Amino acid sequence: MDYKKAGVDIVAGYQSVELMKKYVKETMRPEVLGGLGGFSGAFSLANIKNMEDPVLLSGTDGVGTKIKLAFLLDKHDTIGIDAVAMCVNDVACAGGEPLFFLDYIACGKNYPEKIASIVKGVAEGCIQSECALIGGETAEHPGLMPEDEYDVAGFSVGVVDRKDMITGQDIKAGDVLIGIKSSGVHSNGFSLVRQIFPMTREALETYEPELGKTLGEALLQPTIIYVKAMKSVKNAGVKVKGASHITGGGFYENIPRMLPAGITAKVNKNSYDVPVLFKMMAKRGDVEEHMMYNTYNMGIGMVLAVDPADADKTFAAVNASGCEAVMLGETVEGEEGVILC
Q1: Structure confidence by residue, pLDDT tens digits, 83-96
Q2: Per the confidence metrics, is the pTM higher than 0.90?
C-alpha cells in the first residue's frame, strides 16, 4: 500500500505546481520576497511607510455553486477570476489597495492540467486587480469529493491609509448614488439559477437569441473586478463616502451595509436597463421582483455614495477605468434601508 493507491498522487501535485508557475509569475509585484514553493508567502511592507496610519484590510470568499456550471461545461479557466473578484472587491469597498492573494483548491483527484487552468484564472484575477498571487494550496481529497469535482476559495490582504478609508459614516441625505454595472450574475444566487434553468450540458450550450450567446457563456461570465475603477475615482480627487459590493442578498441586504443610521438609499429602477439575463431568469423561474433584487445584483455590481458636487467626476472616472457608471439614485432621511422606485 502507498499514498497513490490510497488516492493521493504526489507526482500529480508536483506537475500541477510546474504547470501553474508561468501564470503565478505574471502576477508578481516588487514587494514579493522569495519564489513559489516556500512554506509561506512573503510580502514586504516597506512601501507603506509613507502612509500616516496604514490599515490592513482582508477579504475571503469562494464562488459558491457557480462552480457546478464549470463542471458541466468542462470550462475551468475563469472560475478563478470569480474567486479573486469576490475577495478584492470587498477590500476595494473600504478604499483599500489589494496587495496579495492566496488560493485554496480542494479536489477529488488532482488532474494537473485542470488545476493549472483554474490557477490561470486566479492569476488573471490578480493581474486585473494588480495584486500578487504569493501562495496557495491544492488539496486532494479522495473519498470526500467526487474525482471530477473541486472547490476553490481564497483570501486577499490589502492596505489603506486610515484617512482614506471608506466607512459610510459621513453619508447624509442628498448624496448621490452611482452604480457600476456588472457583467451578469457574478458569483451569487446560483442555487436559484440552477433551479430556474435545466442544468444539462445541452441546455447550457444552447444559443439564446435574447442573450446573443449560449446560456452557459452568459452564466459563466466572470465577476467584474472593480479595483481599477475605485483607484480611478480616488485619483480623480473624489472622496467616496460609502461603497457597497452587490453580492448575495442583492440590493436589499448590501446597500444598507454602507449607510449610517437614519439614512435610506432611494434607488431609481428605471435609471438603467436591467440586463436581459435577469429578465429571463425572472420570467422562466417565475421569480417575483423583490426576490430578484434581494438575491441578484440586477446589473449593478458596485454602488458608491458621493457628494453631489463630485457626481460628474465620479461618473467620468469610473467610465475612464473601463467600467460603466449609471446615476442610480440618492440618499434620503429614513430607516427603510433601501427604497426601490
Answers
A1: 999 999 999 999 99
A2: yes
